[in-house]
Amino acid sequence: MIADEDMISVAEVGNNSSLWHQRVGHMSEKGMKLMVSKGKIPNLKHVDVGPCEHCIFGKQKNVSFSKTSKSSKVERLELVHTDVWGPALVKLMQTATNK
What we know:
Elements: H1 17-23, H2 29-37, H3 53-58
């Protein structure tokens, strides 16, 4: 059994390209290499992002609904759309020109 005093916490400092990929909003690897060459990302020597689950999901297309449920209407007034709200009682503001 390992005692709590023997445990050590380790954190990698600054040169994880996947972490920087997330920090800059899932930028492309090409864009990150450009930022590294201009010195905009500190302590990052090599850019290797690899597959990113969030980027993969972001590029997927939405599936559209099937259009088979839409039926055409043959006779007049078989389908009627109306506005059932109203009339609204709105008090008009009087201006100098309305008096």
